[in-house]
Amino acid sequence: MIRTSSARRLRAALGTAVAAAALAACGGAPAHQGAAAVVGSDRISIAQVEARVAAVRDGAAQAGAAAEEQPGLARHAVSDLILGKVVARALADHRITVSQSEVDQARSADARTVGSDTKLAELLRAKQGVPSGDVDGFYRQQIGLVKLAAGQDPNSPAGDAAIRKALVDAGTALHIEVNPRYGSWDTARISLTGSTENWLPAASTQAL
Length: 208
Known about the structure:
By secondary structure, the chain is mainly alpha-helical.
């Protein structure tokens, strides 16, 4: 485990590591065609989700761990991609920035704890579903979450409440919609729930 990262502990506390899938459909087919989710004005394409899943699988294969693949990998990828946009919106709303030096410092500290940067990347891949090329992005997000606690201990009730409020407000403002094959986004819980078969209206037969 990466024991020294308060950001990672926060992620676990929020349940984002195991959050799955995406939002309820509402709207016309053209904007949703080929989309895993629509977050504000941004589309998360199915191709983006597949690319993230492929990167995680490639990392597992290189580590000789392909057989350990966890179920729901695509749903987890959708959840992470949505959460990334929610966190980014919350940080922008609160005028919070995260510098590259902060990312480097946190990443280096955890790498020293686990033995190497390579080992750190493998742990994040195995435990959090983070592709090796997105480790900096993972730390940027986690540091941002800590900053949303507004100076309070992010693991305290007050800090947790501040973070959750910021994310709920951001998610509400973004009007997130998710392809029901991945589930639906619960704005209050900041996670994906459930799943259904069809994304487009029943009258449409056009493939995703």
